[in-house]
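Task: sequence design from structure.
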């Protein structure tokens, strides 16, 4: 309000000053005579002032017209001028509008529309580092893989966009199943941006799938150095890779190197069951039973597993069942409440023909968490105590429909594996296998069930009147064969 009032007062003051000045000029006496073309022209003071003003205006207008002519010449010559900047801003505005519309179309799933907007944006902007990426992603969305690959290859020509181009082609090769080319591209992308998390993970997975354990360990170390991986997780996964590398060296016939690598893998992650087994086997070959037992007990205390017990038995393969039961006390006193420990005790007592003690070890487990394995052990106990075939057959029938017990299961896809592996064979996940209960309905038997004799003696296979009786006969024959081999 006050500002508006001040403006009005200032305007009135200017008008009054101009009026006062004009009045003074009109009241002034005198004139000036100017000779124009041989003729004398007389001008009053006011006329001279008006003429001066008109002259200044004409001079200013002349300079403006000259500047406009020069600018037009420069514009036509291709030089940057205010006119060219105006048209450039206009083109840039239209280009960014098309780019924005293309990004919205891409987010909406309209691939063809996004490609059209990207072409329009390129026409106005002439900035391929922006529009090519939109074109490539839109072509992928529209299913035009050829255009997408061609556009990604254009991005390789510029240092600023080379990583994006390599990554885009790499993802295409992965979708096509060309893992060899994808691995080479992942290595190139990793060299360009070693801190890129997705590239690190992709390279690590591809190296693990191709059994390039040495390269995978280098990639894993890079993840640790860049802060993308916790130290404890790195230690565990490095142990997995070291174990896999040891197995590869062993397959190549380099036994000494494989043994050292297995011991190193166990040192890095003592709770890794396959590493503990392989390290213990290495110590057994070196006749170092004490070190083998120490490794196995340490792993058993973390996670009891049949493979650990089987390797512990291999330390003294020729001992009597009674001596074995006594030696295994160093293992069974650890994790005494574990189902695996209870089943191990039952199996050991069955082998020693102490069936009442075997029953005491497993009765509670069978009642609370029946599985195919502990029910089969109970059938063996009944068989050893001389129970009727009908009783034994009843336990085996229960075993057919019971849960299978812990197995190696992928945490990503829930795929069940018969043995541990560093990479899931179904989803290619790295270090995703864990020893746990499978989902309901799975029927695969766990590995390591045959580690010790489960059933003593043999009965003749009955005439198969049904599918269940056929399976029961196979169970008796398999377990009897396992006892003979042991």
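Answer:
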């Amino acid at each position: 309000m006050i500002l508006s009032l001040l403006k009005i007062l200032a305007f009135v003051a200017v008008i009054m000053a101009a009026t006062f000045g004009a009045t003074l000029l009109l009241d002034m006496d005198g004139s000036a005579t100017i000779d124009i073309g041989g003729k004398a022209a007389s001008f009053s003071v006011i006329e001279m002032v008006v003429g001066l003003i008109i002259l200044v205006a004409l001079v200013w207008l002349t300079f403006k017209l000259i500047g406009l002519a020069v600018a037009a010449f420069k514009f036509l010559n291709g030089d940057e001028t205010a006119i060219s900047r105006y048209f450039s801003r206009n083109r840039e505005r239209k280009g960014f509008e098309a780019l924005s519309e293309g990004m919205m179309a891409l987010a909406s799933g309209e691939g063809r529309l996004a490609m059209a907007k990207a072409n329009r944006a390129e026409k106005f902007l002439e900035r391929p580092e922006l529009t090519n990426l939109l074109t490539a992603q839109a072509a992928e969305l529209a299913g035009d893989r050829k255009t997408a690959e061609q556009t990604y290859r254009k991005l390789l020509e510029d240092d600023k966009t080379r990583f994006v181009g390599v990554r885009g082609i790499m993802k295409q090769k992965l979708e096509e199943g060309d893992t060899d080319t994808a691995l080479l591209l992942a290595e190139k992308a990793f060299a360009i941006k070693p801190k890129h998390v997705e590239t690190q993970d992709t390279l690590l997975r591809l190296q693990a799938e191709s059994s390039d354990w040495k390269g995978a360990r280098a990639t894993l170390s890079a993840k640790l150095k860049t802060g993308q991986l916790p130290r404890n997780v790195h230690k565990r996964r490095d142990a997995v890779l070291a174990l896999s590398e040891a197995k590869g060296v062993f397959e190549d016939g380099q036994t000494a190197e494989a043994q050292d690598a297995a011991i190193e893998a166990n040192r890095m992650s003592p709770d890794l069951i396959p590493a503990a087994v392989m390290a213990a086997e290495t110590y057994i070959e070196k006749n170092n039973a004490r070190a083998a037992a120490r490794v196995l007990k340490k792993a058993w205390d973390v996670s009891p597993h049949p493979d650990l017990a089987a390797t512990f038995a291999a330390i003294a393969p020729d001992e009597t069942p009674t001596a074995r039961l006594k030696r295994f006390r160093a293992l069974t006193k650890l994790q005494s409440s574990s189902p695996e420990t209870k089943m191990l005790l039952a199996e050991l007592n069955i082998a020693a023909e102490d069936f009442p003690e075997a029953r005491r070890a497993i009765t509670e487990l069978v009642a609370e968490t029946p599985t195919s394995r502990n029910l089969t052990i109970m059938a063996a106990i009944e068989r050893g105590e001389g129970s009727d075939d009908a009783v034994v057959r009843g336990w085996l029938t229960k075993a057919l429909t019971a849960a299978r017990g812990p197995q190696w299961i992928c945490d990503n896809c829930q795929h069940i594996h018969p043995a541990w592996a560093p990479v899931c064979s179904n989803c290619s996940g790295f270090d995703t296998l864990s020893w746990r209960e499978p989902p309901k309905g799975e029927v695969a038997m766990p590995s390591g069930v045959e580690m010790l004799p489960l059933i003593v003696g043999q009965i003749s296979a009955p005439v198969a009147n049904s599918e269940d009786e056929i399976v029961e006969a196979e169970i008796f024959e398999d377990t009897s064969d396992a006892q003979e081999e042991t």
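DSSP finds 22 helices and five strands in the chain.
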